[in-house]
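Can't paste images in this forum, so I'm doing it all in text. The chain is below; anyone willing to post the predicted structure tokens underneath?
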Amino acid sequence: MEEWRIITDWENYEVSNLGKVRNKQTLHVLKPFPIKEGYLLVRLYRHGTIKAFLLHRLVALAFVPNPMELPEVNHENGIKADCSASNLTWMTRSDQQRHALRLGLRKRYGVGVCFDNTRHKWLAHTKVNGKFKNLGRFESLNEALLARSRFINELEAA
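Text version of the structure:
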């Protein structure tokens, strides 16, 4: 059953547990549009200003409890267009990266380098003081490996 809740700070709009947004007064359901990474975006209007929101975040904020105040919203089935509350969970960035690797949305090529299938780029990363550090996205595997290697060398030299 579909349930609607008012969007915090945007009282003229409601979001549903099935991943829809509508104008509260007209009941017109907004059509989300995909962005480069495959996520869905909606634009809300208020007092002559427009603000864009990621649909999955609006749904999660309204329907998915986050008692640990985790920063990232994850699509459990890996389908970014499935913004239903039952498909969303809160997690850390590192947990989200591991989840993407498990689902095959990212592939690991050596330590600290993986391929991001949604952005079609190589991602280099490492941990510094126990925290995940993104070193950037690169066109080639060699560029990503080189960037990670340089970062590690600079860190060890300091």
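The helical segments are 55-63, 93-103, 141-157. The mean pLDDT is 90.
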